[in-house]
Amino acid sequence: MTKLHLLPFLESVWALEQRLSGLLVDYKLTLSQFRLLLLLDKDKPQTATRLSAMLGVTKATTTALLQELTRAELIAASPHPEDRRSSLMRLSPAGKKRLHQALEALSDMERMLGKKLTPEITEALKQFNLKHDGAT
């Protein structure tokens, strides 16, 4: 069997995901909720269908996330001006505050991780992410 050089990297990604998830617990967020809030923070209000595509998950998964975040009053819906059947989802002021608190806490983790990565690895990860973003 061929030795896969990607496995140690994947194990590191999984460990990072676990640490990130643990940190987000302090802000009463899951990693999936965090990703959705990030999308709403950087883009204009979005429909559930568009958010599903951006997250790469099913509409049912997105609907469940939106319901959780709405109950927590972290997002709000408004009528879509061009499509009466749709709503536009946006961050609420409380959602923006919680997201930015979590991002501040994550900056410490990023600084720690940044000290351990060589410039070459950092650049390779950026390039991989750019190629991945272009493929979606």
List the helices and strands and how they pair.
Elements: H1 6-25, H2 31-42, H3 48-55, H4 59-71, E1 75-79, E2 87-91, H5 93-116, H6 119-135
Antiparallel strand pairs: 1-2
Helix pairs in contact: 3-4
Describe the structure.
- This protein has 136 residues and is mainly alpha-helical.
- Helices cover 69% and strands 7% of the residues.
- The chain has one domain (7-135): Winged helix-like DNA-binding domain superfamily/Winged helix DNA-binding domain (Arc Repressor Mutant, subunit A), CATH 1.10.10.
- The chain is built from six helices and two strands; from the N terminus they run ααααββαα.
- The protein has a two-stranded antiparallel sheet.
- α3 packs across α4.
- The longest helix has 24 residues, at 93-116.
Short description:
With 136 residues, the protein is mainly alpha-helical. It has helices at 6-25, 31-42, 48-55, 59-71, 93-116, 119-135, and strands at residues 75-79, 87-91.
Q: What fold name stands as the CATH topology?
A: Arc Repressor Mutant, subunit A
Total beta-strand segments = 2
Question: What Rg is obtained from the alpha carbons, in whole angstroms?
Answer: 17 Å
The first-level CATH class name: Mainly Alpha
Q: Which bin fits the share of residues in helices?
A: 55-70%
What does the oligomeric state look like here?
Answer: single chain
The ordered H/E elements are HHHHEEHH
Characterize the main sheet: 2 strands, antiparallel
Number of domains: 1
CATH homologous superfamily designation: Winged helix-like DNA-binding domain superfamily/Winged helix DNA-binding domain
Which architecture does the CATH hierarchy give at level 2? Orthogonal Bundle
Low-pLDDT stretches are none
Mean pLDDT: 87
- The helix/strand class is mainly alpha
Beta content comes to 5-15%
SS element count, helices: 6
